[in-house]
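Rotation project, supervised by the postdoc (A.L.). Task for the rotation student: set up a whole-complex structure prediction and record inputs and outputs verbatim in this book. Inputs entered:
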Amino acid sequence: MDWINSIIQGILVGGLYALFAAGLSLIFGVMRLVNIAHGDLIILSAFLGLTISTSLNLHPFISLIVVIPIMAIFGYVLQRGILNKTLGNDILPPLLVTFGLSIIIQNSLLEIYTADPQKMNAGVIEVASLSLPGGLSIGWYPLIMFVISVLIIGILQFIFYKTALGRAFRATSDDQEIAQLMGLSKNHIFGLAMAISMVVVTIAGIFLGVRTSFDPAAGPSRLIFGFEAVIIGGLGNLWGTLIGGIILGVSQNIGAKINPGWQILAGHIAFIIVLAFRPKGLFHRIDG
Amino acid sequence: MNKEYEILQSSKVSRASGFIAIFLIIFLFFAPWWAGRADIRLLSEIFLYLSLASLWNLLAGYCGLVSVGQQAFVGLGGYLLFALTIFSGFNPFAAILVSGILGALISLPVAFLIFRLRGAYFAIGTWVVAEVFRLSFAQIQSLGGGSGSSLPVGIVKSIASSKAMRESLTYWMILGLTVFILLSVYLILRSRRGIALIAIRDNELASQSLGINILRSKLFVYVVTAGLTTILGGLIFLQKLRISPDAAFNVNDWTAFVIFIVVIGGIGTIEGPIIGVLVFFILRETLADLGSIYLIMLGFVAIFVMIRAPKGIWGFVSSKYNIELFPLSRKLKEIKGE
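Outputs recorded:
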């Protein structure tokens, strides 16, 4: 029973990992940019949520109403002000600029909030659980987190394939010059993609901040989890990314069950196995 | 209209810089006689960073293999030094040389995995590998597990009995290795293989169509770099005498600073890392008291340079004055014409 329990917990946390990954994957899909600061942006939004919910005395989930617009505008401005200047044939500039950004965010958070771990308090929902037959019990919070994650991935999928904005994303991704000729502004489209990515990042950040404690240095490992979910699932396939996140979550929980020190390592090993035997990921890219 | 040409690969400037380099090395060799202990430590650290930066520059600047996981090999070198001396009774310097070979061997299966990833995904893949190394070494209880361990006194004494002699020996090893690494990078890039690497850097598709085996060229550089970085890791922790997984596999210390050095100095040039390391240490010695503010400033400087002057300080100087201190390009000179 313990084992089944760990696997269920792993599946549920996998939804959160898929959220880490979805924002990363969206940006890469639209503009071939891998944002090294992605994990730090997740942590930044967790800290923003913490500050806003404690200073305005709001529930962390309600603070999303304030944090999401802030982060979305920040993303748009960041993209148009800095990141668009780095995009081109050379992969080095975007990589190094986002690496620099990562260091700036981490150390700014350290300067403002110190290195102490913080946590957001979401009240009773954190401990309430649902009893299932067979002695299993599932926490409401992980369950809600999972359901919302699946929902968000569904919404992203819808935006990408069924709306005018999604068409603009795909067109710019396929051929920037032709898309410009058709009257799309590349810089604006990229700005919007980053803004949407930041919306997903913010939701992931608040979920994370309620689930576990976080500190300014926690960003890089979130980037790595997201990245692993993307590669396990297969590039350019959001549902694959969800499965990738679940595989990662389950591996980590099984690893932790065997030996607490192996939790994170087990996730990396699952990633390495997939990379060795299915380098293109478990699922194929879907187009259109 | 028959004209004869000769191919020149050196200039007055480069010959002069060669002589200056030789005098500088001799001068630095005698540092234990003219410098204090703190200065020797600082010089060692400068040389170690210069070596790490030159190797990273070879990887990223010439092969497009942008790694943010070189700390994997720095940490591996440190841990191999401890393991080989404590468990197998190696002399520390022998252990460091052996660990270089082991590092190169271990980099082969690593390359097999991460070479499947392209561009920026390759970068994050190297980071995952470094994390795997860190978490694995944290599981080895006989090397102190997560909290790390110190090099036993007996092993430290086996280098040399007096502290001054020990520090001088380590300094000479580091100086020697730095000269060796700079020279190797220079000679590799001047060789046939180096011309292939520069061609790959400038245009991967065109170089492939000229018959260059891209995978083999990149693999060669990756393995050589891994082996040498492992040796550097051994020397770094021979100086520190204490190791822990977090210090050994630290992404800031062994990769972020190194990237900063190369980017500021000028990526894709041999001179870049030398300029960059000087700028980095001048900034550090004057501003390090500011702590995290200093790191925030480094981040902003790196972003500014990458956007405004992507070729770095040396790229700016060399394009303005057309000079190379370590000449790689070849120039045609007319020697007889009618």
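Student's summary: Chain A touches chain B through 42 residues (CB under 8 Å).
Supervisor addendum: The mean pLDDT of chain A is 90.
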